[in-house]
Amino acid sequence: MTDSIDDNDRKMLDLLRQNGRLTNQELADLIGLSASQCSRKRIALEQAGLILGYHAQLSPEADGTPVMGVVEVRLLNHTPESTELFHAFVRQADSIRDVFKLTGDYDYLLKVAVADLAELSRLIQQLAGLRNSVSHLRTSVVLERLKESGVVIASRVS
């Protein structure tokens, strides 16, 4: 399907990334197509797996997780058992929001969101305690979110 994406599809994907609540009529007005054409295109993009879902982006305060961090993880080894132990942990840990497998010095990058620093400390201890799986962690606390999921976050005036 990616070979058959046209300029209108790209415009639609970009607009939906910014606002997944746009109606077919609103998309049609912004792109310059009919609402029925937009509906067909949106359905085709969904069926092709190019639109994975529609989500509400909550503020950390609304979500009850105002502390965000990133954790770089280096595995001790890459045996199937070690890797599966780590994968099972990240799948079940609600505070781990995103997981990326990397090249370079670390094997994974985790984006985490927690209620407070004590919860972040517990999460780091749990990760470090994954026996025969994790060899090194490096954690950073996010001070300010400027842009997320391709969308600039409105700055607050103090």
Automatic annotation (TrEMBL):
PROSITE patterns recorded: HTH_ASNC_2 (PS50956)
The HTH asnC-type domain, residue ranges: 5-66
The keyword Transcription belongs to this UniProt entry's keyword annotation: yes
Gene3D superfamilies, per database record: 3.30.70.920, Winged helix-like DNA-binding domain superfamily/Winged helix DNA-binding domain
SMART domains xref list: HTH_ASNC (SM00344)
SUPFAM superfamilies: Dimeric alpha+beta barrel, Winged helix' DNA-binding domain
Keyword Cell inner membrane: no
Record key words, sorted: DNA-binding, Transcription, Transcription regulation
Listed InterPro entries: AsnC-type_HTH_dom, Dimeric_a/b-barrel, Tscrpt_reg_AsnC-like, Tscrpt_reg_AsnC/Lrp_C, WH-like_DNA-bd_sf, WH_DNA-bd_sf
Signal peptide range in chain numbering: none
Name of the molecule in the record: Lrp/AsnC family transcriptional regulator
Pfam family, one: HTH_24
